[in-house]
Amino acid sequence: MREMTKKFLEDAFAGESMAHMKYLIFADEAEKKGLKKLANAFRAIAYAEFVHARNHFRALKKLGDTPDNIKSCIAGETFEIEEMYPVYKETAKLQEEKEAQISTHYALEAEKIHAEMYKKALNLVNEGQDYDAEKIYICPVCGYTAEDVAPEKCPVCGAPKSAFVEF
Amino acid sequence: MREMTKKFLEDAFAGESMAHMKYLIFADEAEKKGLKKLANAFRAIAYAEFVHARNHFRALKKLGDTPDNIKSCIAGETFEIEEMYPVYKETAKLQEEKEAQISTHYALEAEKIHAEMYKKALNLVNEGQDYDAEKIYICPVCGYTAEDVAPEKCPVCGAPKSAFVEF
Ligand SMILES: [Fe+2]
Ligand SMILES: [Fe+2]
Ligand SMILES: [Fe+2]
Ligand SMILES: [Fe+2]
Ligand SMILES: [Fe+2]
Ligand SMILES: [Fe+2]
Fold it and tell me: Which of A15, A155, B54, B85 has its CA 20 to 30 A from that of B142?
């Protein structure tokens, strides 16, 4: 693929992903205000942006077979753990930005778990097996990720077991 | 907020949004291969990245009240319609990149509708009302967006009515 087209598709994938995310965040906010149909519109349009992002992703030939997809996840999580979040968290500390210190700390802790999960997934898939967790529980405050059973209290942010979202 | 912390949080929001999107795309692919538990793990971890993105977004003070949120959507869609996608689409044509021509054309057409929907939403919310569409239908091929009833055939990509996703 030509360089400029590739660059633009990558930027378009980033833009669509951020629009999708923003609309999901705004949907929850509208829902809280009792604006149910507005929340539904935000979620519907967020799905349209998902379709656009997926089209750009496919055009970029980034959708591979399952082991390659998992490897790309391991690479992304590892970059965040080893490079990105330690730098962002240290910068927030240096600049005394409290909220940014918390949001980068929360992310860093969860990414460590995600990297291990994806490594396990790659081993299982390479052996011809599906993933092995029946249920996965996510902390809605910090993103802490647990398999099979939610903790009594989130070890990262202290949120109660009842708040965890089950998948 | 200090400049470098702000820059890093913006980059982290982009990174989390793209990770979220990638995991949703991989979840569908795993599901198609019959790997149900792997698909579930991708979706659970995608939700954790949503939590991270939302934390960064809040720390950046980008979550406003409902009219401000809608204005930010109008601005984003308008930029895509007037600046981003016309340039990307023209570049794909110039460079004879067929798939990129299609994926940027599909996005451009849908964003025009989204901008109008958000303008209508802003007027309604300013009058103290909720959005006025009971149902919204999205084309899963191109993201074409219709209110109240799905078209017999997608006017942008030709997908049949039965393929539309209802919200
Ligand atoms: Fe889009
Ligand atoms: Fe992660
Ligand atoms: Fe937590
Ligand atoms: Fe994350
Ligand atoms: Fe849009
Ligand atoms: Fe379509």
Answer: B54
User: Of 1.20.1260.10, 3.40.50.300, 3.40.50.1000, 3.30.460.10, which CATH number belongs to A3-59?
Assistant: 1.20.1260.10
Class of B133-167 in CATH: mainly beta
**What is each CA distance from A71 to A62, A77, B27, B37, in whole angstroms?**
12, 10, 14, 17
What's residue B97's pLDDT? 98
CA of A72 to the centre of ligand 5 (A): 27
Q: Chain A residue with minimal CA distance to B74?
A: A19
Measured from the Cβ of residue A133, the count of other Cβ atoms closer than 10 Å reads: 20
Q: How far is the CA of A49 from the centre of ligand 5 (A)?
A: 6
The pLDDT tens digits for A127-155 are: 999 999 999 999 999 999 999 999 999 99
pLDDT tens track for A3-57: 999 999 999 999 999 999 999 999 999 999 999 999 999 999 999 999 999 999 9
Determine the pLDDT at residue B11: 98
Q: Which of B40, B87, B142 is nearest residue A136 as measured by Cβ atoms?
A: B40
pLDDT tens for A57-71 read 999 999 999 999 999
Nearest chain B residue to A94 by CA: give it: B5
Q: Which helix (H) or strand (E) holds A41?
A: helix A36-59
Q: Do A57 and B21 touch (CB under 8 A)?
A: yes
Judge contact between A145 and B45, C-beta under 8 A: yes
Q: Which of A76, A99, A136 sits opposite B59 (nearest CB)?
A: A99
Of B15, B52, B103, the CB nearest to A59: B103
Cα→Cα distances A70→A58, A84, A114, A118, Å:
16, 20, 11, 6
